[in-house]
Amino acid sequence: MNNLCADIGWKSINHEGEQLCGDHIDIVEQDDASSVIVLADGLGSGVKASILSTLTSKIISTMLAEGIKLEECVATIAETLPICSVRGVAYSTFTIIHLINNETAEIIQYDNPAVIFIRDGEIYDYPKTEHNICEKTVLKTVIKLQEGDIMVAMSDGCPHAGIGLAYNFGWKWEDIAEFMRCMSIAGYTAKTLATMLIDECNKEYGYRPGDDASACVVKIRKREPMNILFGPPKNRDDCDRMMSLFFSKEGKHIICGGTTSLIAAKYLGKPLRASLTFERSDVPPTAEIEGVDLVTEGVITVNKVIEYAKDALGENKLYEEWNFKRDGASLISRLLFEEATDINFYVGRAVNPAHQNPDLPINFNIKMNLVEELSGCLKQMGKRIKVSYF
Fold first, then answer.
1. What is the chain's alpha carbon radius of gyration, rounded to the nearest angstrom?
2. DSSP character for 67?
3. How many CB atoms neighbour CB 248 within 10 A?
4. SS3 for 56?
């Protein structure tokens, strides 16, 4: 197996006045290194468009992931979805990105704006072949992937942005491609790139979108392991074993919790230097241990990281907060959300006496729940997670 992985992120905005988005993005993982990504744009907007796009993306992604041929998938859609009484056609437009072992990408496009492909910081003009399926012209591309490749799929709400406002004929595909090329150079994650594109579209619409707009970004990168230690072991005799396993792992090391930090410092034979500077009022200060990449407080800091993780999976409104601040929660978020691909949790089951105060909303079960909740969010981001309890 190669050392490449796919960072996938997306974002959508609804047509003004609509509660449902007429676009839908679906991702089905075939295994650790292969997945099917479908962005479907339903005809019109609102409930009908949402149903059309959801059915389209679900049918295509599920069938392709099971190895069924594209022709059969498209034929199934044509036979399954209802005919639009106004336009006389049966299904939504779609873009498919099929990643195979994170080495090859099959890009299949029907009537959506062309996928932007960025390689080595430049727009790559990839070859396309036409296929006639059920009287529809479908474009297909097969590309050998390399580290740093970025693919941007979008619905037509993106190039339609700004019509009659900033632009006479909307935001041209070439201008969107150049915008994404410039943004990609900074090394942002797929989720952040998708957010930047949709936020810019929203701005071009004057924050009153005249169409649903969606973007899905796929970024090919090398695997980056990360290790996080949270809480001392239940049995004191396991301290050295826990520390030995934690520090022997490849990648960066994060320690959360005061007692845990003291145990790690003793194991390494290095002093623990606590910071007296509060970067913010709601997150405790960080500390330093030589040989450790980041040392923070435990429960309060991790709880804040979970808040950021939930937002990152949703509208990503808090991105600017955790991406630029220097508090413990923001630093952990950058490491886990942006850098890490494979995350190993080492979780101690010891009961912290400081958490037994009935006036505090913290207990042992809550601490364990925090780990489960955070690891669940990270899995949704596409991270590989392994949790070891001591």
1. 24
2. T
3. 8
4. helix
Based on the number of CB atoms within 10 Å of its own CB, is 57 exposed (0-12), middle (13-18) or buried (19 or more)?
Answer: buried
Residue type, 70: L
- DSSP symbol at 74: H
List of residues 6+ apart from 104 with CB closer than 8 A: 142, 143, 144, 145
* Residue partners of 16: CB distance under 8 A and separation at least 6: 205, 208, 209, 210
4-222: CATH superfamily:
PPM-type phosphatase domain (3.60.40.10)
Q: What average pLDDT is seen over the chain?
A: 90
Per-residue DSSP letter, 15: P
In percent, the amount of the chain with pLDDT more than 90 equals: 71
Convert the pLDDT of each residue in 316-356 to its tens digit.
Answer: 889 889 988 999 999 999 999 999 999 999 999 887 665 55
| Beta strand ranges found along 68-194 (DSSP E) | 93-100, 104-110, 116-119, 122-123, 129-133, 136-144, 150-154
> What is the CA angle 362-381-305, rounded to 5?
30
What's the whole-number mean pLDDT along residues 266-283? Answer: 90
Residues 84 and 90: beta-carbon distance below 8 Å: yes
Cα–Cα distance for residue pair 175/309, rounded to 1 Å: 31
Give 131-134 contacts, CB < 8 A, sequence gap 24+: 131/70, 133/70, 133/71, 133/74, 133/75, 134/71, 134/74, 134/75, 134/78
DSSP 387: E
Report the SS3 class of residue 97: strand
Domain parsing of the chain, residue ranges: 4-222, 225-389
Nearest to 178 by CA among 144, 209, 152: 152
Place of tokens 């150079």: 185
Report d(CA 97, CA 125) in Å as an integer. Answer: 16
Q: Tokens for 9?
A: 């992120």
This prediction's pTM: 0.87
Q: Map 227-295 to HEC letters.
A: EEEECCCCCHHHHHHHHHHHHHCCCEEEEECHHHHHHHHHHHCCCEEECCCCCECCECCCEEECCCCEE
DSSP for 23-47, written as a single string: EEEEEEESSSS-EEEEEEE-SSSHH
Predicted confidence at residue 191, as pLDDT, reads 92
DSSP-derived secondary structure for 117-145: EEETTEE-----EEEEETTEEEEEEEEE-
